[in-house]
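Page 42, continued from yesterday. The earlier attempt failed because a stray header line got pasted into the input along with the sequence. Redoing it now with the clean sequence only.
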Amino acid sequence: MQVLVRTWNLFHGNAVPPERRGFLEEMVQLVTADAPDVVCLQEVPVWGLRHLEEWSGMAVLGAVAARPRRRSWRSRPEH
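This time it went through. Structure tokens are written below.
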């Protein structure tokens, strides 16, 4: 049994170089156009989560990362 899993970092729908408008909806439609079994999206803006089911035609399970509570030990300056 083959399963098609596709992943994509959407970079919040931004373009490179940046443009005045985003392309989040178009990106989601493109990544789901051939009906993959599973799509894993990264860097979807929180506001976009509520639109994913409509744009993709797929069931959606989203998770929002929490901000770190304190500064990482790796970000401390060296002595």
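Notes: The radius of gyration is 16 Å.
Reminder to self: strip header lines before submitting.
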